[in-house]
Design goal:
Elements: H1 2-22, E1 34-38, E2 46-47, E3 53-54, H2 56-68, E4 72-76, H3 82-86, E5 93-98, E6 107-108, E7 113-115, E8 117-122, E9 138-142, H4 146-157, E10 162-166, H5 171-179, E11 185-189, H6 193-197, E12 203-208, E13 213-220, H7 225-241, H8 243-253, H9 260-272, H10 274-288, H11 292-303, H12 323-329, H13 337-353, H14 362-373, H15 375-387, H16 395-401, H17 408-411, H18 421-441
Parallel strand pairs: 1-4, 1-5, 9-10, 9-11
Antiparallel strand pairs: 2-3, 5-13, 6-13, 7-13, 8-11, 8-12
Helix pairs in contact: 9-18, 10-11, 10-13, 11-18, 13-14, 14-15, 14-18
Length: about 475
């Protein structure tokens, strides 16, 4: 019997060696980067025109790597490659908006969020209200996603249901194809509906396809025990200290405000009105370094690109400058589109320069709020934030504090007096959404163009989240 046990143990040695060989070592500074499998997407991993990378899960990974003191090697794979790559255990973490694996041998971290799958269709089509109505329909879905697995299961239960798995592009590309009525139905993550609706305003989620499931990181079949423990502690701490909620707000918080009619009107004016103003906005970027599309988004929120806009308080022009601000900036004619745009951009840049210790993108969001209520009221709100033990540098916290400027128990103690802080929050959130839409539809200023020198000139923010 002992001989048999020795033979079994001897035969098991190669398996143990293979397992140890396939298991990546714990990431350590200067020796082993954190290897992360991900895929392109609005909340996973995306690059803007400047090469800056963003994504909710990307930001989480960067925070975790910083905690470990190591670099990150992002292995980005397309929708059609994700399943194959995930079956290869040569990674530390798979962060690709994943649900727990059907394979019980795959170890995952704690839940980050919870979500479910929905069916999206064009608003002009007859809405589907039951799963049985999927019979005879063709549904497009990104390959390798949880929605692909859901649709595969449903195709086995519903006769005549055709599922097309798309191996290129992103969910935004599918949404735009649906918006243009090139396809009829898309299975997508419910969490992304409001986000993609900015680019596809005719999209409507009409049918729930699955029950809620957690979004988790995959750690593979044989994760390093120390790495697994660190992941668990990291996620639980971020949940408790509010970091997870702040990141969620950064990517999802601003996209729930615009109505369909707002988006459609804006898209129409991008085609009809923006061409006449584009040069002025681009010159404003050359002057200030601020992305011309952000300046255009601010101008749209202020005046709907109407150079003759006037409020009852005599705020006038395309950038809706007060007479005092215009005089300060040397704007001779507030109704001249070019003067107004350049003046408004310089004013925004002055507000940003007044917040040197605030990191981006919060610095710009706070500056935009100050554009609406004035720097005095913004500083007063930041004082209130400190008194209430909130973070005066974080837009996440200031969204809650700014509306307090309209409450007597707060503004009666301030030299600046009452202000419509809630309006500033709404304005800033709308501009964030309009800016997202413009970045999707308009190219950036060509690289290498020199800035115009002058008052207010500076280096613009990196804002892609």
């Amino acid at each position: 019997m002992r001989a048999i046990n020795r033979i079994v143990a001897f035969l098991a040695i190669p398996l143990i060696i293979v397992a140890c060989r396939d298991q990546l070592p714990f990431p350590t500074p200067g020796a082993q980067d954190l290897v992360v499998v991900t895929r392109p997407g609005p909340v996973t991993y995306g690059a803007d025109e400047t090469g800056s990378i963003s994504g909710l899960e990307h930001d989480l990974i960067e925070l975790f790597a910083r905690e470990l003191g190591v670099g990150v090697k992002h292995e980005v794979v397309g929708p059609g490659e994700i399943a194959t790559r995930l079956n290869n255990d040569r990674y530390h973490i798979a962060a690709a908006w994943l649900s727990p694996a059907t394979d019980p041998g795959i170890v995952t971290g704690p839940p980050l969020f919870r979500t479910h799958d929905v069916l999206a269709q064009h608003e002009a089509s007859l809405p589907l209200r039951s799963l049985e109505q999927l019979s005879g329909k063709t549904v497009h879905v990104l390959a390798g996603t949880r929605q692909a697995a859901t649709m595969k299961r449903l195709s086995g239960e519903i006769a005549g249901l055709t599922v097309v798995e798309v191996t290129q592009g992103s969910v935004i590309d599918l949404a735009e194809a649906l918006d243009e009525q090139k396809i009829s139905y898309v299975a997508m993550d419910a969490r992304l509906e409001d986000l993609v609706n900015q680019y596809a305003p005719a999209l409507r989620a009409t049918l729930k396809l699955s029950e809620a499931a957690p979004v988790v990181w995959w750690l593979g079949r044989q994760p390093n025990p120390e790495l697994q423990a660190r992941v668990v502690a990291f996620i639980e701490r971020l949940r408790k200290d509010g970091t997870l909620a702040r990141l969620e707000e950064r990517y999802f918080g601003h996209v729930r405000r615009l109505k369909q009619v707002d988006i459609e009107k804006f898209l129409g004016h991008i085609e009809t009105t923006l061409p006449r103003l584009r040069k002025h906005f681009q010159d404003a970027e050359r002057l200030t370094g601020i992305d011309w599309r952000l300046i255009a988004a601010l101008a749209w929120q202020e005046s709907h690109w109407d150079p003759f806009a006037t409020s009852y308080t005599n705020v006038r022009g395309l950038m809706m400058l007060t007479e005092e601000t215009a005089d300060r900036l040397g704007v001779g004619n507030r109704l001249d589109p070019r003067e107004s745009i350049l003046g408004g951009a310089r004013y925004l840049n002055l507000l940003r320069n007044g917040l040197p210790d605030v990191p981006e993108p919060d610095r710009t969001w706070l500056a935009i709020a100050g554009y609406n209520i004035g720097p005095g009221h913004l500083n007063a709100a930041r004082t209130i934030a400190r008194q209430l033990k909130a973070d005066a540098n974080a837009w996440y916290d200031m969204k809650r504090i700014l509306p307090l400027l309209a409450k007597p128990q707060y503004y009666n103690r301030l030299k600046s007096g009452r202000a419509r802080g809630g309006e500033a929050v709404i304005m800033t959130e709308n501009i964030r959404s309009y800016y997202d839409i413009l970045c999707r539809n308009e190219p950036p200023l060509p690289p290498g163009e020199s800035k115009i020198t002058g008052p207010g000139a500076g280096t613009g923010p990196k804002l892609r989240r």
